[in-house]
Amino acid sequence: MRSLKKRKTAGELSHELASDSTKYDAFEVGHALVEDGSVEKGIMDCIQIHNKIFNVDEYVVGYLIASDPLIKGLMRRKFHAWLWLPKPRPSQAMFLYNKKLDKITKCLWVLPNVIKMENLIGDPFVKPEYKRMQAWSMAFYQGTFFEFVRYESGTDLMSEQEYLKAYGEKLIDTKADDFGISVSDTFDFSKIQTNKVVDPDKPLTN
């Protein structure tokens, strides 16, 4: 009779991860996830769900890579879709999806983790493949992120703040499901401790 292999408990796994001194780079983790196809599958699953919800030709879809708030060293992916340009966050990638063409037409932005963002904006000799990421990171810190993304991608999508300002009254008078909005829970990034991360909606002079 084959002996059953004992599965490790959540406590045992948590203890192993807590004793792991490896410094995980969320951007490198993202590369690994793309290579094994799990990111592509997650995005396509997200699109299939929101195609039934959003009554628009184009919308934004993407993901966050974040550490688990309870288990040290564990990375989680959060796939989400929006009618507007969501607020930029470290370790985030966003794309423009066209429902009529049924494909992703543009990469709107890819931001690495906070440390890599700071390294990119301070590096005068960035490799060619990181030039766009450097430009996105600089726009993030300079408070011109949405303007730069719209200019570079050629889209006219509004930010969340602009969208709610334009359609706020309609949102109040209608059900969110009828209006085509699906708000997902986002990861709490308040744990990021750095005085260099600024709100991209506020100018640096403030």
What does this structure look like?
- With 206 residues, the chain is α+β, with helices and mostly antiparallel strands.
- The protein has one domain (23-173).
- The protein is 39% helix and 17% strand.
- It contains eight helices and four strands.
- It has a four-stranded antiparallel β-sheet with strand order 2-1-3-4, sandwiched between helices.
- A hairpin with a 7-residue loop joins strand 1 (58-67) and strand 2.
- Helix 5 (131-142) runs antiparallel to helix 6 (145-153).
- It starts with 9 loop residues before the first helix and ends in a 27-residue tail after the last helix.
- 20% of the residues are buried.
- The model is unreliable at 17-26 and 174-206 (pLDDT under 50).
